[in-house]
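User: Hey, quick favor. My workstation is busy. Could you predict this chain's structure for me?
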Amino acid sequence: MQIAVVGATGAVGQEMCSILAQRRVPADCLRLLASARSAGTRVPYAGTDLTVRELTKDALAGVDFALFSAGAETTRAFAKPAAANGTVVIDNSSAFRMDSDVPLVIPEVNPQDAHQHHGLIANPNCSTIIMAVAVWPMHRVNPVRRIIVSTYQAVSGAGAAAMQELRDQTRRVLDGQPVEPKVLPHQSAFNVFSHDSPIDESGYNTEERKMVNETHKMFHDNTIRITATCVRVPVLRAHSESINLTFDQPIRAQKVRDILEAAPGVRVVDDRAGNCFPMSIDAAGQDEVLVGRIRQDRSDPSGCSIALFVCGDQLRKGAALNAIQILNLLTS
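Assistant: No problem, here it is.
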C-alpha cells in the first residue's frame, strides 16, 4: 500500500505523519508532498526523516491513498485527477465537502458513508467534528431537534503560522511592545474575536455555516435547527464548544452521561465536586473529545433540553486523526 500526505509541512500534515507512525499504519511507501517552496524539507517519521517532494500530478502516480491537507485550491487542482487515476483521496479542505457525490465522514458518526465514495472522501470542518462526535450518540437514542453552539477556537485552526504568531505576540505584549497582526486579522494574544471567515448577507460567517450544513449532511437530517457563533481565543490548540441541545423527548442529565460514557471517541470529564471539566490544555494531543458540564437546561420546563461543554484537539480529531480513521475504515 502506497500512501501520500499532501501538505506534509503544514500543521495538520505533520500531525498526519505523527499519527501514521504512532499507529503503525502499514505502508510500503509513504510520500510526503508539498508546494515547490517546501520541496527538500525533512520531516520526522518513525525515528527517521523523510524528504518532502514537490506536489505534481506525476508525484501522485501509483499512490493508493492520498491524505490531503493543503487547502481547497490545491485540492481542486489535484484531487479529482488523482482519483481518476485510481488514488483514493481523503481531503481535509472545504473544496468538496458539500458535493452530493462526495461522502463527508466522521467514523464515529457515519462510517457507512465512507464506502460510497467515487475516489474522493471529505473530512468535515474541525469544529463540526468536535461537536458531532459528542452529539451523535445522544441523537441516536433521542433525536436532537435543535442545537445552539458557541465555539472557542484555538489559533491552530488557522495553521502553523497562526500558532507562531500567537507565541510571538504574547512575548511582545508581556514585554510592553506593540504587535502587528499578519496571519490573523486581529491581535490574538490576550484577545477574543469573531472567527476570521467571510460573513454573508445573513450575518453568519463561513465557519458557522459549515457547522450547520455539514451536520445536516452527516446526520442525514436537514430538519435539525442549528445556530452557531464561532470565535477565536488565545489558545494554541484544542477547540472548546458550549452546546445546548433540545431533544424530541424529555431526557435527564444522568441518561446523557450514561450515553456519553459508552460512546466511541468520547471521554466524560465531569467532576462537579472538584470543579474539573473539559479544558483545552487537557484535550491538546488527545484523540478523544472531552465532554462535561452535563446539566439540565432549567430554562426549558419541558425537560427536553441539555447543556454541555466539549473540548477537542483541532489538529488531531478535528483534522489529521479523523482522516486516518477514514483510511483505516477503507483498509480494514
